[in-house]
Specification:
425 residues; alpha+beta; eight-stranded mixed beta sheet; five-stranded mixed beta sheet; binds histidyl-adenosine monophosphate
Length: 425
């Protein structure tokens, strides 16, 4: 056999039949779920100007420093980037189309995102997010809405043991006060900082708290806490969020170390994790980003949102066998003889016009091998159109899954029978 010449790129997955049906089903559930909360779908291009991402995500973040697929447009030298996330594009679009003129907006999107990370289970270079953004709301109940709606989705998908990690990272003034104290502490312990953290000590010290380096955990556990620098206003907002989430029966871990990997956040931040996943356990992350709209050239506008990783969500569903996937198999498989092929094709079309799924064998083969393929297709019935059937203008219907005896029916009778017995198909 000739060797396969080309391979897909590392960390970028193909989805095959059998997998795509599950994606479609999950996407349909997500669509319905977003609809009941009144979110409207947006679709933005996969490519944007590089500066849009570096400005919003932050120049000193893993994503912007080392994970973006950026390149110069050969035609005009402009630096472009494959979107690593959706919030920046969403805000760009909202501003460009003046969507906020008519009041606050609830929006969602779904699609591929690109990050040049080291691929492993649950971490890919092309992955899919479903993201939700609520723009123009300062009300803490909208932070709560995001948490409650994600919780509802986990319940709908019958996920078990998903954990909510919750924190507030204050506003810019709180963080400026905290930054001074944190740098002071880290400077005193500079020898224990790894190379990455040394580099970030003055550029983005808060990101050091998020370090996954085990050797630094002890040092970080003793670090001063942002909570001591929070203003009353920030505290009141967070108290309201916590109280409502609790009152609605959702438990959470207060996690002072949760700072998120993108710079635009302020106040409430949260992540949902699942024990069914390995190292990449976060299925959903988000929070408030009240400064981003203004930072990208708009009027000061409070906002919040989240995104979930669809590969990870599907992994949890599979790992917990929590969901019964709908079988999407054809109803009929069309079997025929060489000189009745056209009639069989016409009848298959007749059924399809009524929305019935029919697989046409395609090609000359013995009846035995056609039945073998019919069986493998998962279809419930084989429809046989041979010379006898052609003469009688009837099709033989043979059950592939039960012992029920075969019957001969006109194509109209087949349709009537489907309407009666398969109205659900
Ligand atoms: P994020 O935490 O970077 O946030 O990504 C959100 C989710 O996308 C993660 O929790 C994870 O499930 C999934 N994800 C991220 N990177 C990968 C990867 N390499 N492979 C597979 N899945 C991945 C954001 O992107 C923010 N834009 C969320 C947001 C929206 N905040 C406010 N609005």
């Amino acid at each position: 056999m000739a060797e396969n010449k080309y391979q897909g790129l590392r960390g970028m997955n193909d989805l095959l039949p059998g997998q795509t049906e599950r994606w479609q089903e999950l996407e349909a559930i997500i669509r319905r779920w977003l609809n009941i909360y009144g979110y409207g779908e947006i679709r933005t291009p996969i490519l944007e100007q590089t500066a849009l991402f570096s400005r919003s995500i932050g120049a000193v973040t893993d994503i912007v420093e080392k994970e973006m697929y950026s390149f110069l447009d050969q035609l005009n030298g402009e630096s472009l980037t494959l979107r690593p996330e959706g919030t920046a594009s969403c805000v760009r679009m909202v501003l460009e189309h003046h969507l906020l003129y008519s009041g606050p907006k609830r929006l969602w999107y779904q699609g591929p995102m690109f990050r040049h990370e080291r691929p492993q289970k649950g971490r890919y270079r092309q992955f899919h997010q479903c993201g939700v953004e609520a723009l123009g709301f300062s009300d803490p109940m909208v932070d709560v809405e995001l948490i409650v709606m994600t919780h509802r989705l986990w319940q709908e998908l019958k996920l078990q043991d998903v954990c909510l990690e919750l924190n507030t990272i204050g506003d810019a003034a709180c963080r400026a006060r905290y930054r001074v104290r944190l740098i002071e502490y880290l400077e005193r312990n500079k020898a224990q900082l790894d190379a990455d953290s040394q580099r970030r000590l003055y550029t983005n010290p808060l990101r050091i708290l998020d370090s996954k380096n085990f050797a630094m955990q002890e040092l970080l556990a003793e670090a001063p806490q942002l909570i001591d620098d929070l203003s009353d206003e920030v505290n009141v907002h967070f108290e309201q969020v916590k109280k409502a989430v609790e009152a609605l029966g959702i438990s959470f871990n207060l996690n002072a170390r949760l700072v998120r990997g993108l710079d635009y956040y302020n106040r409430t931040v949260f992540e949902w994790t699942s024990p069914a996943l390995g190292a990449q356990a976060t299925i959903c992350g988000g929070g408030r980003y009240d400064g981003l709209v203004e930072q990208l050239g708009g009027k000061p506008t409070p906002a919040c949102g989240f995104a979930m990783g669809l590969e990870r969500l599907l992994d949890v569903i599979e790992a917990q066998s929590s969901w019964e996937w709908r079988e999407q198999l054809p109803l009929f498989y069309m079997v025929y003889e060489a000189n009745t092929a056209l009639l069989a094709f016409e009848w298959a079309e007749r059924l399809r016009s009524e929305g019935v799924s029919v697989v046409y064998h395609g090609g000359v083969a013995s009846l035995k091998s056609q039945f073998k393929r019919a069986d493998g297709s998962g279809a419930l019935y084989a429809l046989v159109v041979g010379e006898k059937e052609q003469k009688q203008q009837q099709v033989t219907v043979k059950s592939l899954r039960t012992q029920i005896e075969q019957v001969s029916l006109s194509i109209n009778q087949v349709l009537e029978w489907i309407k009666q017995d398969f109205s659900h198909v």
